[in-house]
């Protein structure tokens, strides 16, 4: 019963609307620019670049600048790697899973080592695998240029916290210290979960195995075993509810500008709840992701929502299994450290 009560418990509000508004502006302005240029194919690069603004939402100005800059550069590198893979002939889905698993491990170690918040490597893996799977990516200079401009804009918005009243978003949340053994185990778990989820996602045949990878590593980004299992449950429940919302929104067959407006609103709502209640945030984050897919690379709605639901369940299930099996070993390493 305690687990059920925990699922329905919302965290306290901490001026979340301020950070949510900043992050929404971070995606809105670049998105409007590429739309005005008539380049909806570049919208996904603006979206991935805007992930920079999600980092360091409750840190001091200096730490925010450093952490957002580092996160932005890593995201840019993942996008570049994804474009290299997409441009290479004959690269299979399994190869993308293998490379993405290494990205998951290295990204998680980097995030833990320097104290990035949010922790883990979800955005790094999401950026790489999404671009690597594009059937016909735009020229690298254009895609990376949009991403770089968006990253710089989001870092600038974070800096405005110094001069805009009310934009200082709370006390800093500092990252903990990790020993070499802990970092090794930490990265290994991300590698194993991403690899298993991606391979099973490939074998499922429903497509978008990268969503299984993202769901799995999102769950294990939580700090301990109970929190990871809880995060997996939130991920499944929130995503399935979000898939239903997505079906309704995409079923309306909105035009590009209307879809862009929906994306901006969903970004704000998702960030408004992501710290307080993860499942509720996914009610908005799920249609946000699917609307971005439709804006940049349209595909049948039914196939899209089914893929998201199935792959998320796969990834969350893999995360729970790995957590249960590896927790004794992880606990021993933690205790020794």
Automatic annotation (TrEMBL):
<keyword id="KW-0472">Membrane</keyword>
<dbReference type="InterPro" id="IPR049453">
    <property type="entry name" value="Memb_transporter_dom"/>
</dbReference>
<feature type="transmembrane region" description="Helical">
    <location>
        <begin position="183"/>
        <end position="203"/>
    </location>
</feature>
<feature type="domain" description="Integral membrane bound transporter">
    <location>
        <begin position="197"/>
        <end position="322"/>
    </location>
</feature>
<dbReference type="GO" id="GO:0016020">
    <property type="term" value="C:membrane"/>
</dbReference>
<dbReference type="Pfam" id="PF13515">
    <property type="entry name" value="FUSC_2"/>
</dbReference>
<feature type="transmembrane region" description="Helical">
    <location>
        <begin position="65"/>
        <end position="85"/>
    </location>
</feature>
<feature type="transmembrane region" description="Helical">
    <location>
        <begin position="20"/>
        <end position="38"/>
    </location>
</feature>
<feature type="transmembrane region" description="Helical">
    <location>
        <begin position="305"/>
        <end position="326"/>
    </location>
</feature>
<keyword id="KW-1133">Transmembrane helix</keyword>
<feature type="transmembrane region" description="Helical">
    <location>
        <begin position="281"/>
        <end position="299"/>
    </location>
</feature>
<protein>
    <recommendedName>
        <fullName>Integral membrane bound transporter domain-containing protein</fullName>
    </recommendedName>
</protein>
<feature type="transmembrane region" description="Helical">
    <location>
        <begin position="91"/>
        <end position="114"/>
    </location>
</feature>
<keyword id="KW-0812">Transmembrane</keyword>
<feature type="transmembrane region" description="Helical">
    <location>
        <begin position="121"/>
        <end position="138"/>
    </location>
</feature>
<feature type="transmembrane region" description="Helical">
    <location>
        <begin position="144"/>
        <end position="162"/>
    </location>
</feature>
